[in-house]
Amino acid sequence: MLSEQTFFQKNYEFIATQPERFRIKPGFCRFALHYEVLKSREDVPGLVYSGTDERVTLHSTYFPLKEANKQVEAFESDSAAIVVSGMGLGYALTPLAEKFPNARIVVIEPDKHLFNSALHYINLETLPARVFFYIGWDEFELPPLLELSDSISFFENRQRLKLHSLYFDGIKNRLNGVPAFQTSARWSYPKFQDNQLKVIFIDSSYVLTKECLLGIQEAGHEVRYIHIDKEQYDYSEFIRNILNEIAAFRPDFILTVNHLGFDQEGRLTELLTQLCMPYVSWFVDSPTVILSGFEQNISDYCNIFVWDRDYISDVRKAGYPHVDYLPLATQPTIFQHRNLPCRFDISFVGSSMVFSIHKNLRRMVHRPDLLTMVDRVARAFLTMDSRDFPAAFQQLQEKEGVTLCFDNRDQEEDFKAAVMWRTSQICRRS
User: Fold this and answer.
1) DSSP 280
2) How many C-alpha atoms does 140 have within 13 Å on its Cβ side?
3) Cβ proximity of 371 and 364 under 8 Å
4) Which of 17, 77, 259, 421 could form a disulfide with 153 if both were Cys (CB 3.0 to 4.6 A apart)?
5) Is residue 27 within 8 Å of residue 14, measured between CB atoms?
6) Which helix or strand (DSSP H or E) is residue 105 part of?
7) Contact status, residue 122 vs residue 93, Cβ threshold 8 Å
8) Closest-CA residue to 23 (of 101, 126, 115)
9) Dihedral (Cα; 285, 287, 290, 291), 10-degree rounding
10) Residue range 73-110, pLDDT digits in tens
11) Alpha-carbon distance 258 to 202, whole Å?
12) Quick one: how far is CA 414 from the chain centroid?
């Protein structure tokens, strides 16, 4: 019999060869509970959650294998896919695969640390290729990744659900087509009925915040703002604040700058679309950089304004239906003309981009191959006519034989942003 450490090493190596079956979210995991692994009478460990106020037995500390087999025996399904809500130490997976030889088995485990613990006790190589693992993902990220058919059954461990009931209920509802947000008729009301409009403005003390607020009020409209503190940022609380403000204030639309407040997974877009709430994003920087990876934000209720007409076609090509031009301007009550002597005929106002580049590069310190490519790709990008980064990057790879592999999508987006900032920096310096 293999030792626990040997099992772990073999499983770790096996996972590396099967990336299509093991979708493990990189980076921080928000689910990391404390468990006790206790020896059972079957010579395999039981598992107990030890919280501050409760203890939950996830696997029997006497007969965990017998317990898992009983759960599988009692479970019936004729679905094409079986979703396993929390794998624990994986005792139910082999009997499930044996009882349902034609079903695709999808294991969802939110706690990466618990998954790593399970690798000491199970042999992943013995599981059939139709068993897939999704580890460490948030509930709103999973449905697009799963790619499941309409025929789904849920194999649920009641004890496991005690710990993460909202998480698994959210996944189940989404896979069953239940809306992510429970809304009522109080959010459905006619908009743009009066000359005086009501606007909710999403603010993080970014540039143009004060100008936007003053401009809306000076035009005779009413505005409330929801502030985002980037240092203490709870997205669930932000969503609740949005809902509360909509219910109390009944705005005609929501306004933000540079898509601030919108997440890549499209949670806020999904909510506003469900509420039939128009929202406006005014881009005062490059929308092609900011919207890269934001495909889940496309909606008929999304209205995008760009500071440069050149961007209109790019944003429309990305799938956004309502795109228009809104130039930058000055708020004269903040920036006032002063009669000062002219010392130079030419002046330049702009950032050196040093901080923006550094912020993206520091996320790739473990990938020196990518770091060394940023400058080369940026200088090649400068010579191209297209500002469409994906098209230009593809052209660069074909022309110069450049091949880059990324650990995940976030890393790819960081690299692209670093290239764009570096390109801008070179232009400004020249």
Assistant:
1) E
2) 15
3) yes
4) 77
5) no
6) strand 104-109
7) yes
8) 115
9) 170
10) 999 999 989 999 888 888 899 999 999 999 999 999 88
11) 10
12) 14
Q: Which two tokens stand for residue 146?
A: 């799963």
Bridge partners of 322? 303
Taking residue 238's Cβ as centre, other Cβ atoms within 10 Å add up to 19
Which residue carries 């770790």 as its tokens? 12
Angle 409-429/389-400 helices, nearest 10 degrees?
90
Token pair of 360 as six digits: 């993206």
Q: List pLDDT tens digits, range 344-364.
A: 888 777 778 888 888 888 888
Answer whether 396's CB lies under 8 Å from 380's CB: yes
Q: Quote the tokens at residue 313.
A: 């076609």
Average pLDDT of the chain? 83
What are the tokens at 323?
């795109």
Cβ 181 vs Cβ 274: under 8 Å: yes
Phi, psi for residue 56 in degrees, rounded to 5? -120, 120
Cβ partners under 8 Å of residue 416, min gap 6: 289, 292, 389, 393
Neighbours of 290 (CB within 10 A): 16
What are the strands of the beta sheet with 45-50, ordered from one edge?
35-39, 45-50, 55-59
Bridge partners of 135, per DSSP, are 24, 109
- Whether 265 shows a pLDDT value over 80: the answer reads no
